[in-house]
Amino acid sequence: MNKIVLVMIVILAGCSTAKVQPMSNASSVPVAATPVPAPVDPTLVSCEKGNDSRTLAIVITGKSCVLNYSKGGKTHAAYSSSSSKKRCEAKQFKMRRNLEKSGYQCK
Fold first, then answer.
1. How far apart are CA 63 and CA 21, in angstroms?
2. What domains are defined for the chain?
3. Confidence check: pLDDT of 105 > 90
4. How far apart are CA 93 and CA 86, in angstroms?
């Protein structure tokens, strides 16, 4: 047991004495600007197939939620839950999967 403790102390001591050396030419290295993606609303799913578009939008109020489904310019509540938004999210995922199986491209 004492040998294990001694070995651990030696290992930890060896790790804690390592020094980090700064890069001497760090300021001369150009950094490419990366584009920032547009924010994505996880409660909205938009699906398209040709000229036909469908949307699945979750509206959250406290613990309750409503899943609105839009098609042909008309919107109706496809699902609602008074206990958890996760239920609306699960239903939205299932409906999205069904639309994708029917050839819709969803994002």
1. 52
2. 42-107 (2.20.140)
3. yes
4. 10
Q: CA distances (Å), 92 to each of 47, 101, 103, in order?
A: 12, 14, 17
Global pTM reads 0.62
- Would you give the DSSP letter of residue 31? -
pLDDT tens across 77-86, in order?
Answer: 999 999 999 9
Please compute Rg for the chain using Cα positions: 27
Name the region of 48 (left: φ>0; alpha: ψ -120 to 50; beta: rest): beta
> Could you tell me which of 55, 48, 60, 47 has the C-alpha nearest to residue 88?
60
How far is residue 61's CA from residue 69's CA, in Å, rounded to a whole number? 17
